[in-house]
Known about the structure:
Blueprint: H1 13-27, H2 33-40, H3 46-52, H4 60-70, H5 74-88, H6 93-106, H7 117-124, H8 126-134, H9 144-150, H10 157-169, E1 173-176, E2 179-182, H11 196-215, H12 235-253
Antiparallel strand pairs: 1-2
Helix pairs in contact: 5-6, 6-7, 7-10, 7-11, 8-10, 9-10
Amino acid sequence: MEQKPNIHEYTSYRAYLQSHYEDSKKKNPSWSYEAWARKLGLKNNTSILKIIHGQREAGPAIAQKFSEYFKFDVDERVYFEDLIRLSKSKKDPRLAVALMYKMMKQYPQSKVRFLNDKEFSAISHWWFYVIRQMTRLKGFKNDPQWISRKLHFHVAPKEIKKAIEILQELKLLTIENGSLKITKERLNTSDDIASEAVKRFHEEMIENAKQAVRSVPVLERQISGVTLAVSEEDVPKAKQIIKEFEEKFSKLINSKNANTVYQLNTQFFPLLKKGVKENENN
């Protein structure tokens, strides 16, 4: 195996595995998941595909095979295994935060950033943001059952109740005259910092958008896209334009007489790999 990617530059073990596969395929067009499975000593490529596509997590046996395949040293192996544990802790913010804290201390060169468990929950779960905005609506009820029934995508009432409690603890919601009200407080999430919580929020919202394509009538949604050729030098400018648009859009559309809550997802990402030479396929 040629030089492996630096595991400490990743906050997702799946992204690490996918990067290795893509790099190997670029260097050797005949490389395949089947070939990789043989290298790992697996009967077929099913396990690799299910892991990379998020259909299952890597168990101890296959994690050991990956560690041996990549020839990880002790620190790399432990970090890789921690990334697997982090992925498995999606429903347990306290465990996820404990793992991130450990990884931040042991591997300061990694991209993991530390949040406490309440901040992690508030940033990573899409319904926290929705509940905050719902308090602006006329007729809003501070009732987890009522809120759960209103949501287009299912969230259990117990999760709603927990979210309201956390939002109040973080001073993102408050009680005024017996009613739940949004505050001016904000959680600070710096641009381009590889926070696991922010990643999970975007993953959840993108999944909601995928479902909306099928479940929400066309007249009630706007999902479109454009594919264009750009200069890499213009990417920072493009990101700034998108950010300015989002801020302007929010100011123009954020109505005092709102009666529902919408999500605007702006997605701008490369469709080509970096470093491919023009004459590579010649």
